[in-house]
Amino acid sequence: MRKTKIICTLGPATEKTETIRQLIARGADVFRLNMSHASRESVREIVPRIRKLANELGRPIGILLDTQGPAIRTGPLKTPVVLNKGDILEFTVRGAKKTEKKSVEVNYDKFANDVSVGDTVLVDNGLIKLVVVEKKKNRVLCRVITPAALGSRRHINLPGIHISLPPLTKKDIADVDLGAKLGVDFVALSFVRKPSDLTELRNLLQRKKSKACVMAKIEDQAAVESIEEMIRAADMVMVARGDLGIEVPMEELPLIQRRIVKNCIRLGKPVVVATHLLESMINNRVPTRAEITDVANATFEQADAIMLSGETTVGHYPVECVEVLNRVAARIERSGGAGYAEAAILEDARQKTVAAAVVLANSLPRSKIIVFTRHGTMARNTSNLRPQRATIFAFTPSEEVRRQLSICWGVYPIRIDFSADPNVTIKTAQKYLRDQKMTTPGDNLVIVSDSVSDGTRSDCVHLRTAQ
Ligand code: PGA
Ligand code: MN
Question: Which residues in the chain show pLDDT less than 70?
Answer without folding.
Answer: none
